[in-house]
Design goal:
By secondary structure, the protein is α+β, with helices and mostly antiparallel strands. The protein folds into two domains: 74 residues, Winged helix-like DNA-binding domain superfamily/Winged helix DNA-binding domain (Arc Repressor Mutant, subunit A, Orthogonal Bundle); 100 residues, Arc Repressor Mutant, subunit A. Helix content is 56%, strand content 13%. The strands form two sheets. Strands 1-3-2 form a three-stranded antiparallel sheet. It starts with a helix and ends with a helix.
Length: 180
């Protein structure tokens, strides 16, 4: 039912929203209710409950932009695209490197920056395997390494090495591979 509501919102705003807009045009709950497919038998109260749940969801695909007349709702297109790209990256990492690498990849997505020891501990993977997996993903540009020196001389023994995932660069890298 939620997907049908969002699909209806997207169908209603596909003509009025430009292709580069971050949000769709605001739609009232009454407009959404009138535009639902004929075979969909839900009441206005149930629709309002679904819209409230969608607006309160942590993924923030649907946002509430006003309270008049039951509220105006928009679809956050940038968040939807970013979530789709991240999910695609996760599935490609799992396909290519296995479920343990996917666990490390998801961990880095959630925690942003981690040292190798932290990755081993949080992912609950032995040190040697975690190191191999990180280096494998690093060599394929799915993971990047950021050096933070403790001292200005950049000595390796006094430098933090943090692993991170740059979703935008990884997505572009995969897009270029697809073009090739």
């Amino acid at each position: 039912t939620s997907s049908e509501i969002v699909r209806t919102m997207l169908r209603m705003s596909e003509v009025t929203t430009s292709s580069s807009a971050p949000y769709t045009q605001p739609l009232s709950s009454n407009e959404i209710f009138r535009s639902l497919p004929a075979g969909y038998n839900i009441t206005k109260q149930v629709l309002d409950q679904y819209l409230t749940l969608l607006a309160d969801d942590p993924l923030e695909f649907v946002g509430k932009s006003g309270d008049s007349g039951g509220g105006s709702f928009t679809v956050n297109l940038h968040k939807a695209w970013a979530s789709l790209a991240t999910a695609t990256l996760e599935s490609i990492v799992e396909e290519r490197f296995g479920s343990r690498c996917a666990r490390i990849f998801r961990l880095l997505l959630r925690k942003k920056h981690l040292e190798q020891k932290q990755v081993e501990d949080f992912a609950m993977i032995p040190a040697k395997e975690a190191k191999d997996m990180l280096y494998k993903m690093l060599s394929e540009n799915f993971v990047s390494l950021q050096e933070i020196p403790k001292t200005p001389d950049h000595a390796p023994s006094r430098t933090f090495y943090l692993y991170t995932v740059n979703v935008l660069s990884s997505t572009r890298m995969l897009l270029h591979k697809c073009y090739k």
